[in-house]
Amino acid sequence: MRNAHERFGTVGFTKRAKDTTTQIRVYMDRLIAEPAKEERGTAGAHLISVVGSDAEIAAMWAAVTEGALFQIRIPGSAPFAATLGLEAQCHRGSVMLAGRKRPVRHLVALSAEMSKTRPGADREGNRTVLCSDHPTFVLYRVARRFGLPVVPEWAPWFIGELERRKAIQPLLGLGCSPVVVRGSKETFLCWIGKALKAGSIRIPEENGTISWKLASNFREPLAFLPGETERMPPQAGAAEASEEVPCRSF
Description:
21% of the residues lie in helices and 33% in strands. It is built from 5 helices and 13 strands. Helix 3 packs across helix 4 (155-164). It starts with 8 loop residues before the first strand and ends with a strand.
């Protein structure tokens, strides 16, 4: 964990009352943001993960719910302004650290758009914000959201289609490699149907369960293709997560 502080960013905002002005700044370990369209515009944040004291996290909670404008700094990038927008969601927790009597408070804030990318939510949407650009993870999350009948072996084909059709775009991230995927359920089903007819992908001959090998946390590689070696060695003590999903019939 040497120089771990260099991998953190900061999030700050100014809180103004009648007679006082208070500046709050906390450390950030994860970020997903969509760059502003204009040079001096406001970026759209989709995920912000921060740690701090009780008072700092309470202030961040209030700022998120009020749709505040945040000043964000991350390593290797110029400072920029961003907002999570309206109807953002917050999740709070505590982290116990060795040598500290009191726990560190943790807050994860999600934009309304990213909250809707969970499985089964807003199936009429045509944008899916993801925290990883790995082909298997992208296919898995898109399929889970829209209920698509897919298998892990189709991941290289699917990511190739997204890139060919310019339907995937990298986002600004800290501690992850986020992307946004554009397309609706009907669009992806059309792609699958055409690819099956063309022989680009095949339906498995055997029925049964489908095993998706996905990482259990951000420190691991988020996903890897069947038969593919992991892109980086796993962290000590990190456990691999495998989810079995029933195979769907076409």
